[in-house]
Amino acid sequence: MSARSRHQAASNVVGRFVSDEDHGTRLPCTAMNKPLLAAVLCLSPLALQGEAPLPKAFVTGEGWTPLTLADFVNVNGAPDTWQERDGAILCTGKPLGGARSKRTYTNFELVLEWRHRERSGNSGLFLWCPEAAFTDLPPGTLPRTGIEVQVLDLGYEEDWRASKGEPSDWFTSHGDVFPVGDATMKPFTPEITYRGDDGETFRVGSPSGKRSFPTERRTRPAGQWNHYYVRAINGEVRLWVNGQEVNGGTACVPATGYLALEAEGSPVEFRNLRIRELP
Question: Which of 71, 122, 146, 216 is deepest in the core (most CB within 10 A)?
Answer without folding.
Answer: 146
